[in-house]
Structure formats: structure tokens, C-alpha cells
Amino acid sequence: MAHDETGNGNNNNVRYEEEYVTNSRGMRLFTCCWIPTKPKALIFFSHGYAMECSISMKDTGIRLAAAGYAVYGIDYEGHGKSAGLMGFVDNMDCVVNDCAEHFVKVSEREENEKIKMRFLLGESMGGAIALLIHRKMPHFWDGAVLVAPMCKISDELKPSPAVIKALIRIAKIIPTWKIVPTNQDVVEAAFRLPETRMEIRENPYCYKGRPRLKTAYELLRVSTELEKNLDKIQLPFLVVHGGADTVTDPLVSQLLYDKASSTDKTIKLYPGMWHSLLYGETPENVNTVFTDIISWLDDKYAFGNSG
User: Fold this and answer.
1) How far apart are CA 23 and CA 28, in angstroms?
2) Using CA of residue 169, residue 170, residue 172, residue 175, what is the dihedral sign?
3) Does the domain made of 14-305 have the CATH classification 3.30.70.1400?
4) Alpha carbons 162 and 165: distance in angstroms, whole number
5) Over the stretch 93-132, which tens digit does the pLDDT of each residue have?
6) Among this protein's residues, is 56 annotated catalytic?
7) Which Pfam families does the UniProt record give (predicted)?
8) Does 262 participate in catalysis according to the annotation?
9) Which residue, among 217, 259, 257, 262, has the nearest Cα to 235 in the 3D structure?
10) Nearest CA-CA partner of 130 in 138, 152, 291
């Protein structure tokens, strides 16, 4: 399916397309993209936990495409319009593989063969997935934009160590059970604007239940693994994080910046901003974040195409 979209008064027409692909496990996964008239680089988006691409990511896709970037997204298994039990991820490694395989296939399409540069863009859990994709294929990507990346589960959202141990044992028996205790409503904590919270709650493709046991374990597993291996991150990156984020810890983004082996790295911490910087903040704050992201991408594009 394809149609034209034009965003934010920019007259760079944006074509929107969506299709289903089948992963290596035979599951149908929903994918979508926003394509400008003449793409200068490719951006591959990995969304957050319980979220999806085509609705909540629409503004992001239009803004970046209007700036000249072709933006491709995919709904993970158990998320959005893709197959699988809603909110259930049995193995995060499979999600990483699905994303990597789709992104590589997109890069190899005839219309994209001559486009030199490829960037990852990950939000929250998607930030963790972007970093894991990078570790899987360290030389394939020209950079990453990490938006409030989940390199550690916030202490406010994490059950006590004793409860975690019990949940891990139970997850082996009833992995899809929705009993993970959390101390706050993630939608309330992530999105500053009440109208955005309402949009998320009314979006049938966003999962609103308690985290399923195995999904919660996988989130904990990959974030803990990333936290221990921040020094292995080597690609150029921009990390942006709200200073008032209570879902993922801005101090961990600072730690990522400090520990990563990347020689080209930038961090932007926004005092007072919440977790969802691309979708849930005030219009002025969202504009500030996108200005910083597009400026960083444009600098990388200019450098990569100089000479």
C-alpha cells in the first residue's frame, strides 16, 4: 500500500508504503516506510516495548523523510500489526535477527543500492535492539541515534531481586502470564501530554497489559547484558535522553557515552523532559529534539559524502 504524505510544511513529498514480510520462523511481520523524492541516506527504526511503527511513529517518519532520509520500520513479533501473542517476546535474539535481516534486505533493494549511508534509530527498548544489531553487524552501519535507550531497566520499574528470582522460575512454566509487578503505569510515566497518553491507550496496536513473564525476563536479560558491555559499542552515535525520564535512566545514557569505544559520540540530555522524546513531549520540545537529530544526521551525511 502506498500514498503520499507531506509533513510540517516541507514541500519534499513523502511516499508512505507498508507490506508484510515473513521471518525465518514463518511469522508474518508488518513493515512500513516513509520515502522522500530523492533519499540521501537510509534510517532503520526500532520501536519501543509495547509500541508499533505505523501510527505512533508516523510523525517521526514524515519529519525525517522530509529532511531527505528514507525511514524504514518493522513491528516486532507480538507487537503492532505483526503476528504473535500481543506483548509476548520469547527470545529477544530472534527480534534482533528479524530486524537485522529485514534492514539488510531493504539496503540491498535495487532502489537503495546506490545509497551509501545507513543509520539505526532506536527508541527505548528499540535503542537496546539497535545496539544489539550493531554488535551483530558492527561494520554495516554508519551511525545510530539512540532515544532514551534501554541499557538498564529503571529501578522504579524493576521488581525486587527476590521477586525477580521467583518470576524467572515461574516464567519457565508459564511464560505468557501477565503478573509482573511494576510500581508505575508506563504510559503515565513515559508520555508527558495527557492527549498523547489517550492516543496510546486508544491505539489497538499498542499493548497495555502488564508485562508478560518471559518478555519481562528478556528485557531484563538484554539490558543487563548491554550494561555490562557498553565498552564494546564502536559506531558513531547520538544519544538523546530526557533528564526527568523515570522509565529508562538518563544516568545510564551518560554511562553509555562515557564507556563506549566509539571515537565519534554525542550526548544530549534535556532537563525536565520525559521518556518519550519523539512523540510524548510538548511540540516545542519535540521540535528541539528533532532539530538536534537531523542536524547530527546531516553532519554525518556531509562527512560521509565529502570527497
Assistant:
1) 7
2) negative
3) no
4) 5
5) 999 999 999 999 999 999 999 999 999 999 999 999 999 9
6) no
7) Hydrolase_4 (PF12146)
8) no
9) 262
10) 138
DSSP one-letter string for 160-198? PHHHHHHHHHHHTT-TT------SS-HHHHH-SSHHHHH
Cα dihedral across residues 276, 277, 283, 284: positive or negative: positive
**Catalytic option among 46, 124, 253, 262:** 124
Q: 44 phi and psi, to 5 degrees?
A: -115, 120
Domain residue ranges of the chain, discontinuous segments joined by +: 14-305
Q: Which of 98, 223, 275, 276 is catalytic?
A: 275
The residue to which cell 509476548 is assigned: 88
- pLDDT above 60: residue 5: no
**Which pLDDT score is estimated for 171?**
80
Over residues 155-172, the pLDDT tens digits come to 666 777 887 788 788 888
Residue type at 178? K
Q: Is 124 a catalytic residue?
A: yes
CA distance 243 to 139: 31
Cell numbers 513491528 correspond to what residue? 75
Q: How far is CA 139 from CA 41, 105, 113, 142, 185, in A?
A: 16, 16, 17, 8, 38
The set of cell numbers assigned to 61 is 517518519
**Sheet strands (E) in the chain:** 2-5, 14-22, 28-36, 41-46, 69-74, 118-123, 143-147, 237-242, 265-270
Q: Report the alpha-carbon distance of residue 57 to residue 107 in Å, rounded.
A: 20
Catalytic residue among 154, 245, 253, 262: 245
